[in-house]
């Protein structure tokens, strides 16, 4: 009796090990990066299919984050453009400890020189200057270099009488640069005021856009566009709720809510 039970147990254990080994082999056969998991609906999507769909989930319509260069290829005719102001020096105005090393690491990891890419090219045959923020670089926070690149882009468009589009994605001011970061709000806004004295500026808000970027050039467009379900705000939800002592609506600070309040003009799928 005991021998029979021991034999059955041994056979089950052998079967379990065989099945586990088979599953492990199956996992190894699936190449890394073949599938992407949607952060909203949790569905697995073929990465190639997702890219063809402009990184929009085919199941729930969620707009996944994309890089600045991916967006530029999407919007310019035949994906052709010229990048401007690519060569910039790293700056650490407050001599913040570890900041230089962090910037160097992110430059190597992302291939970006800072959290914004400026480009020139044609959209539907019209010459357009664009600035595209990239949240992979310190959450797209606004440094003095970011402010300088955006200001130069605005002035470039103004001088040549080109329309301007800025795609925002930012966590706000860069804390490592303190007041130097906050100064970029007035610097970019002043340049936009000169540009908008007769020329078009479109602000295109993507997820997430918060802090000083929302309070400056993101909200100054002649036309303000938002991607679906993008987070737009200045202070965070918890900060506002604790200050007002009241519960905010579920979709508060999302594109759809902001359109209802008249903050943005259009919601446009990618």
Give an overview of the whole structure:
- This protein is α/β, with parallel strands linked by helices and 270 residues long.
- It contains nine helices and nine strands.
- The chain has helices spanning 2-29, 47-52, 68-75, 99-110, 144-160, 179-195, 211-214, 237-244, 255-260; strands at residues 35-37, 44-46, 82-84, 116-123, 126-133, 164-170, 201-209, 223-226, 266-267.
- The protein has a seven-stranded mixed beta sheet with strand order 3-4-5-6-7-8-9, sandwiched between helices. Strands 1-2 form a two-stranded antiparallel sheet.
- β4 (116-123) and β5 (126-133) form a beta hairpin.
- α5 runs parallel beside α6 (179-195).
- The N and C termini lie far apart (68 Å).
Give the gist of this structure.
By secondary structure, this protein is α/β, with parallel strands linked by helices. The protein has 9 helices and 9 strands. The protein starts with a helix and ends with a strand.
Helix-strand blueprint:
Elements: H1 2-29, E1 35-37, E2 44-46, H2 47-52, H3 68-75, E3 82-84, H4 99-110, E4 116-123, E5 126-133, H5 144-160, E6 164-170, H6 179-195, E7 201-209, H7 211-214, E8 223-226, H8 237-244, H9 255-260, E9 266-267
Parallel strand pairs: 5-6, 6-7, 7-8, 8-9
Antiparallel strand pairs: 1-2, 3-4, 4-5
Helix pairs in contact: 5-6
């Amino acid at each position: 009796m005991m021998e029979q039970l021991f034999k059955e147990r041994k056979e089950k254990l052998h079967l379990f090990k065989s099945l586990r080994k088979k599953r492990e082999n199956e996992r190894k056969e699936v190449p890394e990066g073949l599938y992407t998991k949607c952060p909203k609906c949790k569905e697995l999507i073929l990465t190639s299919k997702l890219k063809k769909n402009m990184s929009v989930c085919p199941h729930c319509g969620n707009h996944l984050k994309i890089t600045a260069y991916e967006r530029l290829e999407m919007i310019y005719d035949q994906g052709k453009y010229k990048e401007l102001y690519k060569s910039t020096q790293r700056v650490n105005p407050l001599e913040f400890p570890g900041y230089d090393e962090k910037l160097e690491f992110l430059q190597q990891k992302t291939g970006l020189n800072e959290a914004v890419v400026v480009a020139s090219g044609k959209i539907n045959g019209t010459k357009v200057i664009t600035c595209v923020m990239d949240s992979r670089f310190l959450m797209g926070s606004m440094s003095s270099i970011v402010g300088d690149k955006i200001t130069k882009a605005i002035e470039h468009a103004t001088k040549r009488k080109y329309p301007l589009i800025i795609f925002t994605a930012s966590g706000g001011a860069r804390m490592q640069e303190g007041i130097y970061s906050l100064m970029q709000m007035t610097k970019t806004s002043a340049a936009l005021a000169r540009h908008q004295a007769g020329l078009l500026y479109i602000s295109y808000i993507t997820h997430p856009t918060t802090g000083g970027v929302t309070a400056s050039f993101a909200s100054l467009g002649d036309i303000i566009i938002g991607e679906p379900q993008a987070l737009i705000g200045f202070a965070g939800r918890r900060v506002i709720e604790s200050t007002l002592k009241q519960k905010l609506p579920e979709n508060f600070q999302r594109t759809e809510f902001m359109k209802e309040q008249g903050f943005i003009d259009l919601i446009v799928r990618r």
